[in-house]
Amino acid sequence: MTGVKHMKWWGWGDEGIAFDHRDKPEFAPFVERAIGLDVSTATVPVPAFDELDLPASRADEAFHAQLTDIVGGEHVHTDAMARVVHTFGKSIRDLLRVRSGTLSRTPDVVVYPADEQQVQRIVELAVSADAVVIPFGGGTNISGSLEPAVDEERVVISLDLGRLNRVLEIDEVSGLARVQAGIQGPDLERELSRRGWTLGHFPDSFTHSTLGGWIATRSSGMQSDKYGDIADIVRGLRMVRPNGVVVVRPVPSASTGPSIREMILGSEGRLGVITEATVHVHRVPPVRVVLGYLFPTWDAGLAAMREIAESDASPSVTRVSDARETAFSFATRTRSKGIQSVGTSVLMKVLQRRGWDLDEICLSFIGYEGEASHVRYEKKLVRRIVRRHGGILVGKGPGALYDRKKFDTPYIRDFLLDRGAAGDVSETAAPWSRLRQLYDTTMAAAGKAYEDIGVQGWIMCHLSHSYHSGACLYFTFAFVHDDQPVKQYDQVKSAIQQAFVDSGGTLSHHHAVGVEHSAWLAQDVSPEGVELVRALFDGADPNRNFNPDKIIPPA
Amino acid sequence: MTGVKHMKWWGWGDEGIAFDHRDKPEFAPFVERAIGLDVSTATVPVPAFDELDLPASRADEAFHAQLTDIVGGEHVHTDAMARVVHTFGKSIRDLLRVRSGTLSRTPDVVVYPADEQQVQRIVELAVSADAVVIPFGGGTNISGSLEPAVDEERVVISLDLGRLNRVLEIDEVSGLARVQAGIQGPDLERELSRRGWTLGHFPDSFTHSTLGGWIATRSSGMQSDKYGDIADIVRGLRMVRPNGVVVVRPVPSASTGPSIREMILGSEGRLGVITEATVHVHRVPPVRVVLGYLFPTWDAGLAAMREIAESDASPSVTRVSDARETAFSFATRTRSKGIQSVGTSVLMKVLQRRGWDLDEICLSFIGYEGEASHVRYEKKLVRRIVRRHGGILVGKGPGALYDRKKFDTPYIRDFLLDRGAAGDVSETAAPWSRLRQLYDTTMAAAGKAYEDIGVQGWIMCHLSHSYHSGACLYFTFAFVHDDQPVKQYDQVKSAIQQAFVDSGGTLSHHHAVGVEHSAWLAQDVSPEGVELVRALFDGADPNRNFNPDKIIPPA
To answer: In this predicted model, what pLDDT tens digit does every residue of A267-296 receive, in sequence order?
Structure first.
């Protein structure tokens, strides 16, 4: 056996774990109000696995034998389950398609190399046989970066990095760790924390995504304000190409022409297979705390985040939800603890007396790390800014709950999907001066799309990352779909994406391009910008063996 | 007239400004000890300008007329002075060659476009006529990024961006300024500071270099610890290509595949002509101060800088000189003020009583910016670390002097060159754990090279930038040359560069590749890494019209 675990073939996360609304009394009424769904409705059954309709594998025996020669027979898989779990990521489009029971194209064979040498031999075999290689990490991608093209006639190899999962070395003087690309988030943090270190990279997908996947998609995490996006964290890289390994040495900064490091970052397998990275690691700080705050309005919350970014403070998390997402957060509180303290009627009455409109309240989380004295200092700097914008501190309770629940959202999506509602996320980044207009445009565009398809849709937003000159806005949307869910979803998703690029935002802050966002690439980075990337891909992969058609749409 | 000023054709900086040692009593004896040069020796005369031997311009009348049609006759120059000042940058190799009186190849014509539209038309003309375009900013480059290949048979256009020198817009909410590429450092800071802003980018070349040049070479400045290297500062970009303009929008972070922004950064004109950038700007902080510190040894200084980088403090400058550079700094003090306070015999005697070896003393500068309370807080954090490593604070005097004199070093190089001594700089970056070994290897390699060429050479070093995982080490070297100065220089420079890459350092932290460093590119970024860059260049510029042969050496 490979020892590599995969998520449910039909949904997010581990078998046996699911969202349960029964201890959250406000959840059902909220969903009813938001998208008109009665959560006690009968669930839509997921098809039985053996009823799935898969195309035959195109990998013939000779090819299978060559792969077996490289990695050993137990690491070459052509069974239906291996092929299905390696076909898609976990976007709503992916889940809808896999639950439809028909997969038009799957990888023909899944291989699990043990080391870089085996990756090199697989890559050489693929190029000499004119096969397609699609590197696979945790399979959490939601931009279509993993799926084979439906009309791909060559053999498609899903190259699963799951066995390259070790922390190889920690340079304790430099704060650098050499780590294999296939390691998943929790395994990596456990290995590091055992020795007193942390990477500090916690994307929503953390529990199942891999270092290599983060790099290949330019991931960002919940504490990236402090630790940096993965593009900042990664210094050294190894990427296997047909004639050898690209080796980027882990220097802190370099003036060596166009950045090869920044070509590999975000390359989604189109340039080769990332096998290893040397990453920034930090001593686990003495204090790590996330505090909850409330702002009277979305504008006040945004303005406060901007001012914090401009100030001498440098918190690890800056997050504020719009009023709609705040209402959603309140609706997911359990009967007895945690976030309840925020939504208690006592506090609300106090705020009402202060003149707050309770429908406009925005929940914010700000995180602090470092020596205790440093955390105290930073909290003081932030408190002044929060006050200036009319906000109040509500304490550690909500922050601790946020910390505990932060990876749970995808399970809610499956819960809704089981009941006939489609939901997903879209995120962007833009300069501070554009954020409010971008937000308004996006909300209006989603509203118009819902109207056009005749549904009562929901959309909510939070600011998830702050930078000197701007921030990431993260939208979550859902609606009860009809019998053409992908078509309906496309209409809503397209309206949101178009609003992003029309408003000066990027097509994605940290979810990659894949095939889901490639239609907006030229609008985002300009047609001439696309030509530069095309020049790189065409020159580096003239026969299109490496995950073709991703990022730049086929001509 | 174009209104664009250029430096001396035979040296650094403005006419009439030169280094003067007469008020620095310790300078002459220091130079005598260091490289055996008597500075009162007769100076080597620079050749008269009209004795220079230039090749004829290959731009014929028809081509000249086409350029005139685009930019107007007064902005097309083929006179000897224009061609000479656009042939080289200001490396010691450049100065030695221009002072030799013979220029094997110069640009054939210099054009000064007024705007991006004119740049576009020049680029289109160049491609259609199969001419070569070399973008030119301030001409301060020391890596050979500007010179035409000696065997280039096509017409070579030096495209001087000097008229694109305006701050177009400041987005005060986002802290972003849209600025034309040809603006020089002082003009840019003056325009910004007039409105309360600063870019915070102060490379050694600041007084004469341009924004476009900084971007094209991946520049770094003295306060980059706080403001970031130019690669961090630049968000948006416009670069003219034969079929249009690459437009990178100023989003704070994006997940849009391989970074186009990071392809243009460091591209040295090989992908097109950078015309504009949108850059981070910051409110001029209430307090800006640089403090001087002394450490008993180089190891103590390096260890303190590393610990500061790891701490909760984030100073704007972290700099420490080795004992040799410290001695050089002491030797440049004037009779009456400034750095004298550091080197006073009273202080030295106190340190000696404490057990310091005065030959091992290392001078350090640490900068602080922000609100007064923040500066106090950071100074306190740093003071603890400095003390832990046996260092002492020596106050504001040396820092203020450093601030005043920081752009003067190139004038000293000219002073020495006038007297038959060749000097230049080489810098690198490496992980903290490699720095000491890199330093030792480099000092030994330079020593060996001096021995091989039979001269008494000098080399000294400072740490100039700190990062989480490493730092930049900046070496300055000089020796009295014989009648083959370039050959001798090459031997010393090559030894230093080879020591860098052999010790895990990069070929340059912030001076670019050009032709000076291209021999080490494959050793630094791996042969397969070079192939990625080559794929980009070949695809984007198939006929090699854009500053060919830079970065990647000709096959």
So the answer is: 999 999 999 999 999 999 999 999 999 999
Cross-chain residue pair A529–B246, CB shorter than 8 Å: yes
Of the candidates A227, A439, A474, A489, the residue annotated as catalytic is A474
Task: Check CB contact of A277 with chain B, cutoff 8 Å.
Answer: no
CB A114 within 8 A of CB A75: yes
Strands B317-321, B282-283: pairing is unpaired
CA distance B462 to A189: 36
Q: What's the pLDDT tens digit per position in B126-163? A: 999 999 999 999 999 999 999 999 999 999 999 999 99
Per the CB < 8 A criterion, the answer to whether A346 and A333 are in contact is no
CB count within 10 Å of CB A520 equals 20
Q: What's the ipTM?
A: 0.97
What is the per-residue pLDDT across B23-40, written as a single tens digit (0 to 9) for each? 899 999 999 999 999 999
Determine the distance from the C-alpha atom of residue A174 to the mean position of all C-alpha atoms in its chain, rounded to a whole number: 28
DSSP structure class, residue B358: G
Q: Indicate if the pLDDT at residue B341 is higher than 70.
A: no
Q: Which residues from B are below 8 Å from A532, CB to CB?
A: 246, 260, 263, 271, 536, 540
**CB atoms B469 and A280 under 8 Å:** yes
Residue of chain A minimizing CA distance to B228: A253
Measured in angstroms, the CA of B415 and the nearest CA of chain A are apart by: 28
pTM for the whole structure: 0.97
Going by the annotation, the residues of the binding site of B for FAD are 204-210, 217-220, 268-274
Would you say B210 and B217 are in contact if contact means Cβ atoms under 8 Å apart? no
The answer to whether the CB atoms of A247 and B374 lie below 8 A apart is: no
Query: Left, alpha or beta for A165 (phi > 0: left; psi -120 to 50: alpha)?
Result: alpha
Q: Write out the H or E segment, with its range, that includes residue A465.
A: strand A458-466
A513 vs A89: CA distance, rounded Å:
13
Distance CA B315, CA B311 (A): 10
Q: CA-to-CA distance for A9 and A85, rounded, in angstroms?
A: 5
Q: Is B344 on the interface with A (CB under 8 A)?
A: no
Cα separation, A90 vs A510, whole angstroms = 15
Position B554 confidence tier, pLDDT thresholds 50, 70, 90: confident
> Would you call B246 an interface residue with chain A, using a CB distance cutoff of 8 Å?
yes
Interface residue A276 vs chain B (CB under 8 A): no
Quote the radius of gyration of chain A (alpha carbons, Å): 23
Alpha carbon of A315: minimum distance to chain B alpha carbons (Å): 11
B58 CA to chain A: closest CA distance, Å?
Answer: 30
Q: Single out the residue of A435, A418, A416 nearest to residue A475, CA to CA.
A: A435
**Per-residue b or e along A328-354, where b marks 16 or more CB atoms closer than 10 Å to that residue's CB:** bbbbbbbeeebbebbbeeeebeebeee
| A 184-223 residues inside an 8 A Cβ radius of B | 217-220
User: What stretches in chain A show pLDDT beneath 70?
Assistant: 1, 336-344
CB count in 10 Å sphere of residue B11: 22
> Cβ-count burial of B43 within 10 angstroms (0-12 exposed, 13-18 middle, 19+ buried)?
exposed
What is d(CA A334, CA A178) in angstroms, rounded to the nearest whole number? 41
Rounded CA separation A180/A166 (Å): 5
Residue A358's pLDDT is what? 94
Q: What CA–CA distance (Å, rounded) separates B460 from B476?
A: 5
Nearest CA in chain B to A264: B258
Three-state helix/strand/coil letters over A248-289: ECCCCCCCCCCCCHHHHCCCCCCCCEEEEEEEECEECCCEEE
Question: Which residue is it, tokens 């440093």?
Answer: A374
Phi, psi of A80 (to 5 degrees): -60, -45
